[in-house]
Amino acid sequence: MLRLPQLTPRDHWLVLAAFCAAIAGTSLVLTAWLNLHPCHLCIFQRLLYMLLAGAGLAAGLLSPRQEARWVGAAGMALAATGLMVALYQSWLQLQPPGSVSCMGSDPGLIERLVEWLARLQPELFLATGFCEQAEWTLLKLSLANWSVLCFSFCLVLGYRAWRTPPVRRIFRT
Prior knowledge:
The chain is about 65% helix and about 0% strand. The chain is an all-alpha fold. It has one domain: Bromodomain-like, CATH 1.20.1550.10.
């Protein structure tokens, strides 16, 4: 029987960091390649993936020290936030066209943050689309739906790394 190696918490954190960096990079490539128009929620999720990649890398480098658990807890909070935002955007996309919009009369905290970041780095953070429009689908899932799956994976992976106690051996083998 094939036996897979046991991953350490450090391995989990580094896989999480690589996965999130790949997702953030993929979002940039898809935006340019397919001429997509990301909305404020898309850009905010991209930011969360970037922050989550940084948190995963920091937790991986700090592991097995206790500080890694604190950084990892912050990373899991980022993943949970991303999951909620992606679920909200998926809900917006399921509504009948014209019935709801992510843009209200006054911009919210996410919109203000994305607009501020767009002034600093427009190549990464410029929002030009609408949240309720699913511009592109893969296997009948919008990018927001895929983001729900990816943030869920990040949350599970982060929890597995966070809850795994370090192996303490009295004698080296």
